Amino acid sequence: MAQTVSFRDLGIIEYGAAWALQEELLRENLAIKAERYNMPAADHSQGAGTTNHLLFCQHPHVYTLGKSGHMENLLVNDARLKDMDVSFYKTNRGGDITYHGPGQLVGYPVLDLELFFTDLGRYMRSLEEVIINTLAHFGIAAGRLAGATGVWLDSDIPGKARKICAMGVRCSRWVTIHGFALNINTDLSYFNYIVPCGISDKTVTSMEKELGYRLDEATVADVVKAEFAKVFNAIIFESENVAI
Questions:
Q1: Could you read off the pLDDT of 162-190 as tens digits, one per residue?
Q2: CA–centroid distance for 162 within its chain
Q3: Which of 57, 165, 171, 197 does the annotation list as catalytic?
Q4: N or C: which end of the chain has fewer CB within 10 A?
Q5: In CATH, what class is 3-39+48-238?
Q6: What are the extents of the domains in the chain?
């Protein structure tokens, strides 16, 4: 059965504000679930249901460190970050360190996986499939790297593997936050100041670098949204509430 997903394009938004919005949506869904769990089984159909969300945005320059990450993978100190005008956040998502910035599509699905499937591994593979299918639409052959999350190019060629989309999520009572970051026209030089995702022997790339020209980011976002609907069997509708 297809699930409905409310979509919002947040535009360019500071990382902390986007994180706070996700946490708010998470709390709302968890409160609904807690209320339903406390109802007699016969009354569950009378309770309000959770709401699925898909948020798209771009962030000003920022490095984010996952809860299992290592500070040594940030290769610059606070003074240098200030000089570069780059923010830094320790987050509660999985994964290590990554970069967000202009020219990158960041997607934050806030989904109640009990409405889809209760399998976090399958969820991550599904997110990867969304991006793999999107890249194929633009003529870029992408896939997975064994033992790692995200989407990669030439993952089966020694010394050639490069990441084009990073992923990291948090899941609480089967409600997700955080998500993926697809490099479209990203300035890849910012990755030189970190060990991306804690993997030192692999490189990072972008759609622009692979194709040799800048892409229309809105067009790429539309394809990602369409592929998300296909992979997750979702009906996506534009939220009337576009402000935060």
A1: 999 999 999 999 999 999 999 999 999 99
A2: 18
A3: 197
A4: N
A5: alpha beta
A6: 3-39+48-238
